[in-house]
Amino acid sequence: MSIHPSAVITPGAQVAASCTIGPFCTIGSEVVLGEDCTLISHVVLDGRTRIGARNVFHPFCSIGVSPQDLKYGGEPTLTEIGDDNTIRESVTISRGTVGGGGITRLGSNCLLMTCTHIGHDSQVGDYCILANAATLAGHVVIEDYATVGAFCPVHQGCSVGKYAFIGGGTIVTQDVLPFSKTSARRENKAFGVNSMGLERRGFSPERIRALQRAFRLLLVSKLNTTQALVKMREMDGEDVALLAAFIEHSHRGVIK
User: Fold this and answer.
1) DSSP string across 149-189
2) Is residue 156 in some structural domain?
3) Beta-carbon neighbour count of residue 30 at 10 Å?
4) CA angle, residues 168, 170, 175, in degrees to nearest 5
5) Where are the alpha helices (DSSP H) in the chain?
6) Burial group, residue 218, by CB count within 10 angstroms (0-12, 13-18, 19+)
7) b/e 172-195 (16+ beta carbons within 10 angstroms → b)
8) What is the three-class DSSP state of 247?
9) How do residues 14-73 score in pLDDT, each as one tens digit?
């Protein structure tokens, strides 16, 4: 194990021998750090935090810190992080709260850019990108392969669907449709299918065309959401079924 002399690893912490711990890092007594992780410098790992393998933490990250919730009273809640994540400068991830399920999760293969914040009890999936200063309030769900643009605050309790792309500077106060492009270019609206992102992820032209037909029902036709869902249920394909289920289970309503 490579540990800089200025680093502080509290007794009780479990740090894999393959990790590299840079200068002025602190690791709390209840932290479990997996294989081949790198803490570059000035990184804080705190609380009951479980971290997988091959994660890279850049300077001034604060991970597993107490939530920014006045109801929090020091309860032993959790933070979980998967494998192969890149966590850039000044990222903050708060541990969970008892009232919110008790755990904050980050999946695997994610990129969290500078000054990203993941609030308490939020759940972030795999292969997600959170750009500079994307800020998730408590209880937010970001599904797999979603991208949250720079300077995007996401309101408490909102969900962002799979493969969604949110343009920079968008204030998210309702759920973001999976597969969609959503932006505050004029006002918060969905602008159809994230076709380029889906192509990059290996979606066939047929799958994209099916989603485009479904989005036309939602966004362009004169049908209301309930009527559009009836038509969508008549369509084939798992992607359209996932889109319909997301709308049906939305608690805050969706951005159209």
Assistant:
1) -TT-EE-TT-EE-TT-EE-TT--B-SBBPTTEEEE-SSSSE
2) no
3) 18
4) 125
5) 195-200, 205-219, 225-233, 238-248
6) buried
7) bebbbbbbbbbbbeeebbbebbbb
8) helix
9) 999 999 999 999 999 999 999 999 999 999 999 999 999 999 999 999 999 999 999 999
Segment 150-169, tens digit of pLDDT: 999 999 999 999 999 999 99
Residue 235 belongs to domain spanning: 197-248
Domain count, the chain: 2
Q: Is 46 exposed, middle or buried (0-12, 13-18, 19+ CB in 10 A)?
A: buried
Of 121, 139, 157, which closes a domain? 139
Q: With respect to residue 171, please indicate whether it lies within any of the assigned structural domains.
A: no
Q: Cα separation of 136 and 156, whole Å?
A: 8
Q: Which residues are catalytic?
A: 120-121, 138
pLDDT of residue 187: 60
CATH number at 84 reads 2.160.10.10
Asked if residue 168 is part of any domain, the answer here is no
Helices (H), 44-188: none
Residue 173 lies in a domain: no
Rg for the chain (alpha carbons), in Å?
A: 20
The closest alpha carbon to 151, from 167, 173, 128, 138, belongs to 167
Domain harbouring 242, CATH code: 1.20.1180.10
The token duo for 126 is 């795999």
Which of 99, 118, 139 terminates a domain? The answer is 139
**Per the structure block, which two tokens stand in for 106?**
């980050």
Distance CA 220, CA 223 (A): 8
SS (H, E, C) 27-38: ECCCCEECCCCE
